[in-house]
Structure formats: C-alpha cells, structure tokens
Specification:
420 residues; alpha/beta; homodimer; elongated; 14 strands; five-stranded mixed sheet
C-alpha cells in the first residue's frame, strides 16, 4: 500500500471507529443521525454502515424516529455478535465469566482454587470452566472475540506475563497470553487484579464520572489500582499502585515476606491478621464463637467474631483500618483523587472499618486534597474485577487499530498477531 | 455555522494542526514532504501552507532537498514570530524570561522577592521585568502570544488561581490570569512551580523519553510534580504531588505549619533545617565558618559548613536525605517511574545528599519498581521551571482548538476568551 492509500485507509478506519462508537454507546440510532452528528456525507455514512453490517457488528432492527418524512431504519449494536471470556485468579479462588460486547457479565462461576498450585493446574481449570460457560451460553454466533485475565500479582502489560509475582509460585514470566490465544484463537490481555477492579469501578461501577480514582483492595495482601485523567496508571514496569510494601511504621519489628520491615501489608493485610489470630489461639486465647484449631481459623471466623463484639477480633480489624487510613492519607495527598473505593475481605469485615479509614484520612490528608473527596466501599457481591476485565478487552478491541484488522478480515483471528 | 460546515472546519483545523506540527518540530521541510507524510492531496497541502504563511507561523527560507526535478521551497517555523513571557515566583525570589515559540529561553532575570509581600507588589515587579525584557528583545514582530506563571503553592489549573496556598498570604484565589491578560492581551496559564519543573525536565530537560517521571523539589518546603504516561498528573483539585504533608514519622512531636505532626516538610524541608540551626546557634552551638547571628543564618551558610565537614550541618542534611529517601520509596512504589529528578536548594546542598537518597530508595522500594529506575539531580543552573512554563504555553497554544481561533483571527487576542 502506498502512502496515500495508507492515509486514505486510516481515514476510513477513523470514520468506521467513529460510527461504531456512536452506535455502540447508544448515542445515535439511524443513518440521518450519524450524518448529523459527524458531518460525514450520505455516501460515506452508507458505506461505513454497510461495512459494519457486513461484519455483523451492527444490525437493523425496526424503525428509528423520523425527523420528517419516512422513518429511517433503526441501527443497533450487536452486543451478542460474539462473546468475551473473563477470569479473575485470586489467591484462593477463581472467578470466570462470559460477557457481551458491551461488557455485561451474562454468566459467571466462582470456586476455590489455590494460585500456588501453579499455572498448569489453575489455567486447565479455567479453560474447563470457560468451555462449560461457552457451551451453556453460545450467543448468536458462538465466536469468542477476546479474553481478559486478572492475576494477583505484578504483570508486564505489553507481554501479558507475570513479573516476579510474590504469591504466585511457578507463574513468573508464564506465557498466559500465548497459551490461551492458541487454544481459543482470540486475543488475550492480562493485568493485575486490582487494576481491573479500578477499571471496573471506573467504567461500569460506582465511579459516576470520577476520572481520578483510587481502588484499594485489602484482602490477604494490599494493593491499589490508580485511574488518573480517566486512564489506568500502570507506571514504567506495570507496578504502579503496588502499595502493599510501603513502610507505614518506621523502626518496626514486623518483618514482611518481601524482606523489609513495617510494610503496610505485613501490618494491616489479611494474612498478617490471621497470623496474629493463630498466635492468640495457640497461646491459649479465645475468639468468640470459634471452637476450631489455631491453624484453621479464617478471616470469615474473625469477621463473625468481630460482628458479635469479640474484643480481640475487633481490635485486629480496627487496627488494620487505622493503618490503612494512614496509607490512604499518603495516597490521597499524592494522587488527589475525587473517589477512593475500598474492596477486599478485610475492608468488608466490619461495619466500623470504613468509618475508621475515613476518620484517619480526613484528619491526616491536606484540606485541599480532601475538599471534594468521597471514600466508599465497593459492592461486595459485584463481580467488579470481571467487569473490569471485559472493559479492558473492549477498550482494546474497538480501538481504531484493532478494528481495522477485524473489519478487513471478518475474523477475530487476525487480531492475534497484533495484540499488544 | 451548520453541522456539516462545522465538521468541515474541524477537519480543516485538524489538517492545519497536523501540518504546523510537522514543520514546527522539524520533521518535514517542504510541501512534497508534507504530502508524503500526511497523504493529503497537493491542493489541500498548498491551502494549509498558505494559511500558515499568511498567519506568519511559517516562512519560506531557501530551497529544500529535491527528490528529483526542481528543488521545492524550504519551509521553516517562525520561532521568533512572537514571544512568550514566563515567570517563576519562588518563596524568596522571582525569575522571569522571554522564550521563542519553540520554548527556548532567550533572556532571563532573577532577583530576590518575597512572595509574602502579596500579589500586587510581586506582580507589579514581574510586569516591570517583563516590560524590560520585551523592550530589549522585541523579536521579529514584537507580539506576545502567551504567558506562563509558576507559583509556590496549589493552583486550580482551570481558573489559574492559587487555592489556599500556605506560604502565599494574600494570594488565595487572586486572579493572576485576568490581571496579566488585560495588561498584555495574551492568554495566561498558571500552575504550581514544581509541576512546571516536572514538565520542563520531561519536554526540555534530562528526561530523554522517560514518560513516567517524578520531580521532587526539596527547598524551603517539599513538593513533587508527577508525569504519568507522558502527561502531567494534576488530580481532581490540581494538588496531586503535594507530598510535603505526607506523614513520614508516626507519633512524631514535630508540629508542621499545616497543623499535623510528622509531615515530610516539617522534618526534612529547608525551613525546618534552618529552624534547627537557629536553635543550635541560639543555644550556644557553633557552625563552622559562620559568625553571624542565629536569626540570620541561611541554607547557603549551612551548605558551606557541610562542605567544610561541619558535623552539625552535615547531620542536618544527611538526616533530611534519609527522610526524603523514605518519602521517595513510597512515591516510587505508588508511581513506578523510570526517572526521579531531585531539585531545590536542600537537595543541592551536599555531595552526599543524592547518594543517601538512592541508598534508602533502593533498599526500601520493591525490587520490581526499582529495576530500571534512575535517580538524578536536576542541573542547578538550568531555568527548568521557566522552560516548563514555556512548554505549558506551547502545549496549549498549538492545540487544535486554540490554533483555530488564532488562524481565523490572525491575532492572539482571540485566544483570551477561550483560554482554559
């Protein structure tokens, strides 16, 4: 292709992406509306709509409103034209789902699974669950156009490979993308689970227009996903927001698994709280309502005890909330977000957790940084990471560059070679 | 203007901005090169070049290389078509300069000035210095197309007004933009000084392609400018990077002017170090080479003493470096930059400052976040804030929206109404 033809093709793809975007997001519903909104001539609009209909991305379904004269055909996005597969691999569980091309999760499954069993065991199970879900939800065409995976550790986003993930033995540099792409013939993107939660809240959650957002997950470990100016902030190595190893106690004697002392995670994370509960039980202490062994106590047991007013459990969670509050005060000063969302089992453990975090942040951050700040809990039942994974795929799939490959080949397989 | 005409005008402005950008950045030098690079037809290229020449933004100056046949006219950006005025208002000094349309500082002045004297005193002096510089450097046409101001406090970027700036009494919500716009008839942008330093290093300093960068200034106070994905990160209120009031010592008895205890600035900032030196002198202590009163000791006196090996001064700076190192370890974990640049009088005070900061950051941040991290000093003599102010103006001035107003009116005054 010479330069001029190349340029003309880029113009064509620009206009295709523009038209698709307007229909996909429901802002226009007919050719006359497209022409009005874009200023494209009638010929160009007709050509682009035909191309998108040929690809199956849009369909005519009835009549749109007339602005005088005969009512035009109503155009709709074929959100069930194909499926997206999404999965969140947690430390001790996996969630998988299928989503439409608008990112709606239409079916999902969740089950216990140890990430430490390594990539072959875990991904074999994910593939089985994907296959079951696809068989039960074939969609209109049954094709899979994209796969999004969240993992509980740092990821090099370009390559889709985990990078020295501390709680994922056997996963370092494992080619998750290549494995799933060769099995499903669809492009695969991988990111850190907390980044996907931030994306999920931003695009399909409680963000409501907040373009500077911090999502903090306090589960076994502690991590944050950062949205700045509406974009996920990944940093140079893809580990921006890796806040679990920030020192929150100077001269602390609390040793973290990373080798340093006084890390946020070692003081306020779920694993650290459980460790302290085990020591308490092993030393002869009791926890209200719990009669198991020291070794088998869980965060759920501690949360139940705390709800019942057990002093030891309550102190554990309140202490965690105060430490997380101090960590967040720092994050708020640096990022100046308008919304902080808390997620994870520890944050959801007790009614007072959010209240304590708020008290510390508003007392400790600068007045200006907290002037219009909201701190809220993520809805615990919502599959926010799965929704974020779907949004990640959609963002990549309907960008101009990817769309071009797709439309020109009428097959998602062409995407694979260019997936970044 | 109806919708189609509006769209055609946007297309025209897009192509104008594209052509100007290629010539301005030196990537093309003739009409045939523009056609090759953009795919625009010869008629469109000729029209856009004519418009830009009419506006005086580009000129023909000789012959460009031929690719066969007659050599085409060589096109160059008129970098001296007009002037930019830039100023950095510090706590105790002001710097002003004039820059070309490429952002080169062609003349500058620096003199003592107390920001605490309030906006009328300080800005009257800035205006006098601007007028002197313009009279001495009229440029080809003598017009002023944009003004950029850095101030030592938080700024609401949209309005260009300081917001509760702690060390700027009398400046809260002062209309800096309106005052200078009505005097010079050119658009004005105002930002925090450290943000401009970060922008200066990123666009015209030592960044060398680093798109994730943290600039930390350790002067009287402590502040940071954050570049993520190549963009300045301002946050929701414009105070992202306001790191001076992050708690770096828990349960500290050191009271900060913000009302909290243990803030980075109260422990490691220049004002805090001076306060300790005054107490040391007032209590009968000595500082090598200094024979003035306790009240009149300066950071320069302390830096000289430290260079001579004075134990007290050395301990002050080394302690500050360790505290700043811990603050930066936190920033590095959150932002994951590839480059951290240190600036400000305290950071430049002693040879060991950078070494200590590096030691703490590399020992305390996660291995992945520091894998490809560089920590460097800003060049002390470079007017990095002035260069950043010029880059801020250029970024706004040559955006599509602003360019449209400019070209259509042939006057920068049209910009004023739309400056954001």
């Amino acid at each position: 292709m010479d330069d001029i033809a190349r340029r003309q093709n880029l113009d064509r793809l620009d206009s295709l992406a523009t038209v698709l975007d307007l229909i996909r997001t429901g802002r226009v519903h007919s050719k006359p509306e497209i022409a009005r909104e874009t200023g494209f001539g009638r010929t160009v609009v007709s050509m682009r709509v035909s191309e998108l209909m040929d690809s199956g991305l849009i369909v005519e379904d009835g009549l749109a409103q007339s602005s005088g004269g005969r009512a035009p055909r109503r155009l709709s996005f074929s959100e069930s034209r194909a499926l997206l597969l999404v999965a969140e691999l947690g430390a001790t569980s996996i969630s998988v789902g299928v989503a439409t091309l608008t990112g709606e999760i239409i079916a999902s499954r969740r089950e216990p699974s140890a990430i430490a069993d390594g990539p072959d065991v875990v991904l074999t199970r994910v593939e089985t669950l994907f296959d079951d879900l696809v068989a039960a939800n074939p969609g209109e065409y049954g094709e899979i156009w994209g796969i999004g995976i969240g993992v509980p550790g740092p990821v090099e986003y370009r390559s889709g490979r985990p990078v020295s993930p501390p709680i994922m033995p056997g996963w370092d540099a494992y080619p998750i993308r290549e494995r799933l792409e060769s099995r499903y013939g669809a492009p695969v993107w991988v990111d850190n689970d907390v980044n996907l939660m931030a994306l999920g809240e931003h695009r399909a959650g409680i963000a409501d227009g907040a373009d500077n957002l911090v999502f903090v997950k306090i589960g076994s470990g502690i991590g944050a996903g950062l949205i700045s100016n509406g974009r996920l902030q990944r940093g140079d190595q893809g580990v921006a927001g890796d806040v679990g190893h920030i020192e929150i106690e100077a001269d602390s004697s609390v040793l973290c698994r990373c080798g340093n002392y006084g890390c946020a995670e070692a003081i306020a994370g779920g694993s650290a709280l459980l460790q302290r509960a085990r020591e308490h039980l092993a030393g002869g202490g009791s926890i209200s309502g719990y009669d198991g062994t020291a070794a088998s106590v869980t965060l759920d047991d501690l949360a139940s005890a705390s709800q019942r007013g057990d002093r030891f459990a309550r102190d554990l969670f309140d202490g965690s909330a105060r430490s997380v509050g101090r960590l967040l005060a720092t994050l708020v000063n640096i990022q100046n977000p308008s919304l902080v969302v808390l997620g994870g089992a520890v944050a959801g453990s007790s009614d007072s957790y959010l209240a304590i975090v708020k008290e510390v942040v508003f007392g400790r951050s600068t007045a200006l940084a907290t002037r219009d700040l909201t701190i809220a809990m993520s809805r615990p039942s919502a599959d926010i990471a799965l929704r974020g994974a779907a949004q990640m795929i959609i963002e990549q799939l309907f960008s101009r560059d990817e769309l071009g490959h797709w439309i020109d080949s009428h097959s998602p397989r062409a995407l694979i070679a260019t997936a970044v």
